Every structure is written in structure tokens, then in C-alpha cells.
Amino acid sequence: MKPVTRIHSRTAVLADENIDTDRIIPARFLTTTTREGLGRVCFNDWRYLPDGSDNPAFPLNRPEAKGCAILVAGRNFGCGSSREHAPWALLDYGIRAVLSSEIADIFRNNALKNGLLAIVVAEAEHHWLLDNPGVDLSIDVREQTITLPGGKAFRFELEPFARHCLLEGVDQLGFLLQHADAITAYEQHLEQAA
Amino acid sequence: MNAPRTLFEKIWDAHVVAPETTDTPAVLYVDLQLVHEVTSPQAFDVLRAQGLKLRRPDRTLATLDHSIPTLPASGNGERPYATPAAKAQVARLETNCREFGIELHGWNSSERGIVHVIGPELGATQPGMTIVCGDSHTSTHGAFGALAFGIGTTEVGHVLATQCLLQRKPKTLAIHVDGELPPGVGAKDLILHIIGRIGVNGGTGHVIEYRGAAIEKLSMEARMTVCNMSIEAGARAGLIAPDDTTFAWLQGRARVPHGAAWDAAVAKWSALKTDAGARYDREVHIDAREVKPTVTYGTHPGMALALDAPVPAARDAIEQRALDYMQAAAGKPMQGTPVDVVFVGSCTNGRLPDLREAAHVLRGRRVAKGVRMLVVPGSEAVRRAAEAEGLHEVFRAAGAEWREPGCSMCIAMNGDMAQPGQLVVSTSNRNFEGRQGKGARTVLASPATAAASAVAGVIADPRAYPQQERAA
Questions:
Q1: Quick check: A22 contacting B, CB < 8 Å?
Q2: How much is the pTM?
Q3: CB contact at 8 A, A118 and A70
């Protein structure tokens, strides 16, 4: 994973609550065997009309949302299926951070492991961000701050290990493999107990 | 004396390889990883790219379920895959399992089926275990008192390589279900009622333990239905303490211990219960007597209510959008809504008692004109058992399609899907927009309600369709 230290972008807003991973990427696109190229089907059934043209009612299709790397979403974003294809699709689509007042556990875990910042913000800030699309934000992972255009900043919580991995680009599998001896000892203890 | 612990804490503590610190999560040992074709190929690629071996082939078990057709192979053995990509994905799992030495219940296995159906059937799922799979409905296995949860593909790779996961300890939520479920009301009604009460995010960050008189009375299949949908309340996992019902169900299965080792295992498993005085982070009480046949009316499982209760008015634009999508009218009950498709199956309700429940309603009756009904057994073993009792004949005589095992229309990625605008009464677990096909409208229900709705052609109360005498 490449280190992620700072993201600066305008925000785009999807205000719907409970945006599930089926909406982020419908199941029929999960027959892939790679992680790449899923951006073109990200939000597929919301984003395109039946004839394949862009749905003007999909907020991210609006001209002002083009190029936005920070997505502000309604409460409980990423609920449902554990498919990691959801963060892969969002990243490939160009989203680098998702901000919501609540983010589903498995999605958040998957997102952070891929360098997609899944950040829970407080209710008041969430309301403000939902009501003010297109605002320029600067997210600082080291300081755990989100800075608004006027310089006003607020802090967000980030699990310390996830933060460390983002900042240093740590591969978590490598970290786990360092525990090989402890794992072997645990397994020996299991066999003896059996 | 040790401090009293919850069931969750006992299982967690027994699997900590390295404890969590402020800076790092715990390294948690995984007793069993279940693998299927959709969420694993990229994980195997990571192992290959890094030159890593599969640490414990004996703790890894694979099956085909999500992408596979449920229609039979043609005469020349060609299977009707929805797309070449689906076929390639299945071939990839076959190759990966051969290369890494994993037991695969593929096309030639008499035990193939939905991953959360076959784990318990084989006795691979056992009390006190930690079980993971790249599938959110892994919570199903919690019915046996196993800590079981869904993970992403990156973590599938972690477990393949190290048999461990990095995990922060979740919180605990006790759901006490007191009293007794009324006649004609089952586990699916109960779990929809619970999610309707606590919400689709009511369990976020928590492991749920279901307990109380009503839970203790449930069969293992019913407990699996309840635990299966824990994720629909946002929970990491759902648990039920193992008891005599659990042990009786497991005894004699292929992978459980036998003889004296069985007795020793039962003695050990019997300690897997929450100690008196142990504290949960949150507790919720549900009165089982209040539960009625329950269905969903919106676009997530938390929008659930008794099928004869009026759909509540939308509280905001988002809820209104859900009602509009479902073409549901506030103030009117879901009962009586015209039905296009009925689906009985899935890891939620694709086991033998579920199929019996649907067959009891259908025996001697017909699926209404214009309604398409699919019945998809959860596994080859379920199919065999159902056919041995003649349930397939009941379904066919009623006008339903009897398919081969798989996830089918629950996730609708194998070609089994509804058309835009169609209303599906489904025994599956998710009523998200487009889940069962683009524009399809899903109403989640029990097998009995699904079957009654198939007969009536509209959403119907199964209690109005008592079992008819078997034909001589």
C-alpha cells in the first residue's frame, strides 16, 4: 500500500442513508478475478440510465462533482455485504476519502486496508458537510484533522494501527507474518490441549 | 476466582495469539476459514505474488455457491453459466484449491452447497471456534456458539497465509428474547422484528448474543436463521450459547469428534455460556409474544413490520424514496400487495425445515397464475433430504421450479434474477435496491409467508393457509 498522509479536494455529497455495498457495486459485477477496473461500474445502477447514458439525477454525475476525491455520505455508509470490491470500485472511480456520521464495520475495515480513508465525523459536522457540497477540504492523517476553507479544523478518530499503516504504507500481512513464532506456539498449545 | 465473562469473551480470550495494545490490534487465531469463488481469487494472487504458502489447508474449506447456475447441466455436461466471467471465476477457484491443497466441495462433491449451509452440515462448524469467510453472512455459524464473522478479501489473504487476523475487540450486545413465539410465527419473523426494533445500524461495532426462553426453544436451523441476519443489524457477529439442541444436531457429523473424544468435546462446549454476573456493553429485551408474521416494506431490512400493520409515513425524503421505490403506500399494510416472483432459499432460509415450511403451505395448492416461484435448496444434502421426503414433488405439483443448490436469487449474480419493477417475496436476507435484479423490489419474509404469498398472488398471512392433508 502507498502511504496516505494528506488529501485535499472538493467534496461531493450522496446524502442517502444506508448506502449499501450492493449500491456501490451491484453483485453481478463481482465475477471478476482482479481488483482493477471496477470504477466504471461503481454505483452502476444509480449512475446510468437504462440506455447506458449518465443519469442526471445521480449527484456524482453533476459537473461540479467531477474530480471530487472526497465523498460525504449519509449515515451508515457501506452497510451490507463484505465485498472488498466496494472500496476497490470507489478508489478506481477516484474517491480517496469517505466521510459519514457512521460507517459500517466491514466496509470501513476493508477501505482502510486499501488506503481509502473511511472517516467518521460528528453529527454537527456531518450535517454541515451534507448541506454544503463542493467545499474544499484538507484531510491530514497524521494530525487527524479536517480543515475547512477558512482554516477552521476539526479532529477525527482513527484507529492507531490503521493510522500507522496509512502513514507508513505498511502492509498488514507483513506485520502479521512477523508473528509467525507466536502463531506456531499457539498452534502447539492447541494440539496439546486437544 | 476469575471475573465472570460473556460467551463472546470466553471465545475471544481463547484465540488471542498476541493481545491488543493501544497501538496495535490483537492477533486473533482463526480455527476455520470457509472459501468461495467470489471473494477469494485476489487473495490467492497475493499469496502467489509474495511466494507464501497456505498455512493450514486442514483449517480451510471451499465450496462453489455464488456465481454458479442453479439450472442443471445440459446433456453434454455444459453448465448454463450466466457469463463467461462466472465460469472463469469458478475455474479459478478449482485451480487455486488444487494448487494450494484445499478441500473443495465442487461440482463433483455430494456435499456442495452454500458455504453457510455446508459448514454446519459437515460438522466443520463447532462450538467455541473462530470462523471467518469472505462473506458477511458468516454470522450464521454463531448459532453453534462459534465466533463467526465476514471479512474482506485482503483479510482472506491474511488468514490463508497466517491463520490469523488483526482485530480490535468488539463490544457486546445481549438481545434477550423472553416468552414464547406465537403459533405460526418463526425465526425469520423474529429476526426481522428484532432488526425493525434496533435498526440496521443497531449492532454496529458489537457482537450480539441472542438469549432467553424463546431462543432456547429454537431448532438449530431456526437459530441459524436468526444469527445469519445479525449483519443486517450491522453487528460483527451473532452468537447463541450451545446446549443439548446444538450437541444433538452435531453428533455423528463428518468432522466432529467421535466416541470418547465426543464426550470430552461436549463437556468442554458445555462451559461455553455467559457467566452469571457478566456484563454486556448493551442489552435489549424483546417480547416473543408480540412477534407476528413480519415482512419488510422498504429498501433495508430495518424497514420491517407485521404484514397486517400499516406502513408508516416516511419521516424524511430518504424514507420517502424507499417507499416510492417499493411502490408502498403509507397507511396501508403490505398484506395484499400483488406479487410477481417468490424465492425460497439462501443461507438464511434454504435448509430442510425451511423447505418443509414452504411445502406445508403448498401441498394441495397451486402457485397463483402469473407468479413465478423458485425453490433453491441450500446444499446437495438439503436437496437429497428434501427429495427423499417428496418435497420437490410438492413444489413442482404446485407450479414452482425446483433448482440445484446455490445462492441463486438472494444475490442474483448467477442469472437468477427478477425484472425491473417486479415484486419478489424472498426468504433471503437483503431487500436493498436492485439486490435481486436492477429495479427489482424485494420483500423479505419467512418461507411460510413466501409460500402463502405465492398461492394468493398477493402478500398473504401464512396462518390463513393451514397444512392440508397429504394425498393418499
A1: yes
A2: 0.97
A3: no
